[in-house]
Amino acid sequence: MKKGIHPPYHDTKIVCVCGNVIETRSTAKDIHVEICSNCHPFFTGKQKLVDTAGRVERFRKKYARSAKSGESSKTS
Q1: Residue from 1, 17, 20 nearest 9 by CA
Q2: Domain boundaries along the sequence of the chain
Q3: What dotted CATH number matches 10-75?
Q4: DSSP string spanning 22-37?
Q5: pTM of the model as a whole
Q6: What's the pLDDT at 72?
Q7: Is the pLDDT of residue 12 over 90?
Q8: Quick check: 16 and 23 in contact, CB under 8 A?
């Protein structure tokens, strides 16, 4: 490796909003993140369905009608 062309590499703390601290090495001194593997919904199993522009609600309304009409025809 050539000397003088690489940035300094030092111990770093990655701090999440939830309070989790991860110690690693990086060229950045301290890193602050909004979400980490401790609080991310994918890793915690608490995933939520994000409704953008009411699409989920429209889907539920559309198929709630067809499900109700389908049930009444089965009972007759």
Answers
A1: 1
A2: 10-75
A3: 4.10.80.400
A4: EEEEESSSEEEES--T
A5: 0.48
A6: 53
A7: yes
A8: no
Give the residues across from 33 on adjacent strands.
Answer: 16
pLDDT in tens, 22-72: 899 999 988 988 888 777 766 666 666 666 677 778 888 888 876 666 555
Residue 32 φ/ψ region, left for φ over 0, alpha for ψ in the -120 to 50 degree band, beta for the rest: beta
Q: What is the CA radius of gyration of the chain?
A: 25
Tokens matching residue 76:
């007759």
For residue 24, CA distances in Å to 15, 20, 34, 41, 61 come to 11, 13, 17, 23, 49
Q: Which residue has the tokens 């389908």?
A: 70
CA distances from 18 to 43, 47, 59, 70 (A): 14, 17, 34, 47
